[in-house]
Amino acid sequence: MKKILQYFVILLFSFSTVAQNEIKLSNLQCEMLVNPLGIDVLQPRLSWQIITDKSEVEQTTYQILVASSAEKLASNNADLWDSGKVESNASVNVIYAGKKLNGKDEAYWKVKISTNRGETQWSEIAYWSMGILTYADWKSTRWIGYNQLFPGDSVSQFSKLSARYIRKQIDLNKNVKKAKVYIMGMGLYELYINGEKIGNYVLAPVPTDYTKNVKYNVFDVTSQLKQGENVLGTILGNGRFFAMRQEYKPYKIKSFGFPKMALQLDIEYEDGTSETIKTDETWKFTPNGPIRSNNEYDGEVYDARKEITNWNNVGFDDENWLNLTWVEEPGGFPEAQMTPNMKVMGEVKPISIAATKTGSYILDMGQNMVGWLQLKVKGNSGDKVTMKFAESLKEDGSLYIANLRDARVTDEYILKGEGEEIWEPKFIYHGFRFVEVSGYNYKPAITDFVGKVVYDDMETTGSFECSNPTMNQIFKNAYWGIRGNYKGMPIDCPQRNERQPWLGDRTTGAYGESFIFDNQTLYAKWLDDIKFSQTLDGGIPDVAPAFWRYYGDGVTWQGAYIKVADMLYNQFADENVIKNHYPYMKKWMAYMEANYLKNDLMDKDKYGDWCVPPESLEIIRSQDPTRLTDGEVLSSAFYYHLLQIMKKFAHIINATENDISHYDDLSERIKMAFNKKYLNTSTFSYANNTVTANVLPLAFGMVPEELKQKVFQNMVHEVEVTKQGHVSTGVVGIQFLMRTLTENGRGDLAYKLASNKTYPSWGYMVENGATTIWELWNGNTADPEMNSQNHVMLLGDLLVWYYENMAGIKSNPDYPGFKQIIMKPDFKAGLNYVNASYKSIHGLIKSHWKQNKSKLSWNITIPVNTSALVYLPTANASKVKINKDRLDKSSENYKTEEDRLVLELKSGTYSININ
């Protein structure tokens, strides 16, 4: 049976213009946003970008050719698909509609477009190949492993297991024309051929619930193989498969067994014959390599004295190595990994090194980061260097580790004693700013250490700078926090013994993140993780993949499933995630309705408005009932909101009228019951009048129209007067606060919240030395049980507000994926300038404005094949110049809305000046 996933391949082309009225292809570049080798999507979606210095360029037609070889495509022999000339302005997510593709088939494609300014030539050739599509094709490739502990290994709360070094020598008696390797290495792997590491990834593959689905990676290894003897080598680390907390609290923590792998190497020879090399019992291994332990919570131990020279190359004697055995499969279905692996994405050099009284040294990286430390050291054989990691220091200058719980976060390197030695770990990561280094018999130089920044291989797509330094530092802190918590899935924190993909942390957070990082494939993969974790009766966990067995049946946490899908649709025009996940979302909505809807209100909530700023700086959770929002208020309002999104989804996929009418009917009943029980028409407040209790019905459109302004003014009083212009919401309320204030005319108050430096605020974190976002508003003073200094959940909708409301870069919901951009900055909020950019799927969007009392200048860039609604803060067209021409003299393409002019502009770069 064919396995079809919802992921897709996007092939982006760059077109540039030459010569007067023609648009031709020049310096074409194909950018693969996912690995084009071995996808298992039978109908991939194809996209391209048009880049030109001309204005008002719109695509009118496209023609796509797809062929089974580059040679055929070069001669326009499209034996797989010729779309013909299609009258359409679609340049993203064009679905392949050619011949059925079988496993391992190859496809080469190109595109030609027409525009209102001319026709392009054929693009350069791009490529994808199909993966292994059937279970039967994998079945003949056996899983191999060795389910046994060796000396030095242990299974406990602090499990230890040495890495397994695996090799297979093969003899190829012909010249190789083409070769691809397909590998599943659990929990983590590195692959080598003839001593050369394949790929520039780290910590591969991405984590899943291995009992539900297992990701495989594909590599073209033609250039690494040669006629004659070759050696395939792998190192298997533990990852989440083994040794996070193996067999510790089995009622809570899933474990999967010993490391194992399945690999097949497909070789095509120049004479037309082929051969497949597969994992079997002839592969050999040793547990006696230098990696003595690798545990994500506790660190890596490396004994350089045990390094095995040339183990992964021809000529090595493996007579004393053990044979691997056939072992049971993990249980999950093999799937092509359609999101990139992690990589070392940057380096951080320490800013200081200081000796301690005990003879160790404290490194300050200057930035709370995620990854590991590379060291340079000299010493005698058997000397040991120990590195312990932390986010902050105690007053006496020693590491503060109480907030790490039982994570030992320690790497050890044992020297071989052969001159200068350079080392970094392979199968772990740490969240840290400070490192205590001990074991040196001399004072190390600061240049002996380099921090390696590790996260998913994705492009940074957004930039933001404004006139407020505090807001700029908050943006930088958010950037570092988000990137550090991308680990093949979005995790909550990278430092303590948790590091879990909590749903509630990303309900709105994923939306803001999408402006800074190209996180589309990461979150598409995560929706699958959620789907695979759904119970047969419809329940969804708090953490997905469900490495922790937490099924709390909340709405505000589990609602991330629907909210993230909505983000992918709005930001990336991805309808497939809705089509593929709608049945499971509908099942969960029905599950919650059947089990927890009482008197038309949702009475199930687990976490409340998590992390409300408490009344005391020393406590984690507020005990003051006036600060806390009733769980029924949260879950009922949020469920109403999700019903509106489900109705939208139903229209997108043409679901039955029964679905739509059910969502409408249930929404109306919930709104009536909610207002009847919780709306006080005398005080114009909801429930106990917390900001969260009021902002949710305002944001979701639940407030009766005639009372909306009064409820809003009451909420403003709570923020501005009662809370003295400070945040008082937790994880739920903060997701909607900034936009609700701004969209109802109080962008100045939102600006005050964003620029505050006193507690509780994001600026308070900055003022107290934060370089990422804290888990708690009082994360520098609260009890250490829960004060991670690198969380992103409290960002709420702050980043969305930065881009949409301050910069004016927003996708029109009616034209998703930034096909039409809404450019409506709040110029009166309090900023003097904003300079922001966002690389959308259609191209680069820029918004750079600055103002003084008498003048506003605004430079914008609108990508080719899109348009923008541009809102100007004046109703007088004679005061406006666009590209030095007066608006009232040069254009009729504007209208007046209240006190604003609204322009509809096509693609191009514009300089707007208003006096």
TrEMBL record:
Keyword annotations from UniProtKB, A to Z: Hydrolase, Signal
Q: Where is the Bacterial alpha-L-rhamnosidase N-terminal domain?
A: 174-345
Residue ranges of domain Alpha-L-rhamnosidase C-terminal in the record:
808-883
The region annotated as signal peptide is 1-19
What's a Pfam family in this record? Bac_rhamnosid_C
Residues forming the Alpha-L-rhamnosidase six-hairpin glycosidase domain are 460-806
- Provide the Alpha-L-rhamnosidase concanavalin-like domain boundaries: 356-454
Q: Which Gene3D superfamilies match?
A: 1.50.10.10, Galactose-binding domain-like, Immunoglobulins, Maltose phosphorylase, domain 3
Q: What is its EC number?
A: 3.2.1.40
Q: Which GO terms describe its molecular function?
A: hydrolase activity
Reaction catalysis annotation = Hydrolysis of terminal non-reducing alpha-L-rhamnose residues in alpha-L-rhamnosides
**Top-level taxon in the UniProt lineage:** Bacteria
Task: Give the first-level EC class, as a single word.
Answer: hydrolase
PANTHER family found in the cross-reference section: ALPHA-RHAMNOSIDASE (EUROFUNG), ALPHA-RHAMNOSIDASE (EUROFUNG)-RELATED
Please report the name of this protein according to its UniProt entry.
alpha-L-rhamnosidase
Lineage per the UniProt record:
Bacteria, Pseudomonadati, Bacteroidota, Flavobacteriia, Flavobacteriales
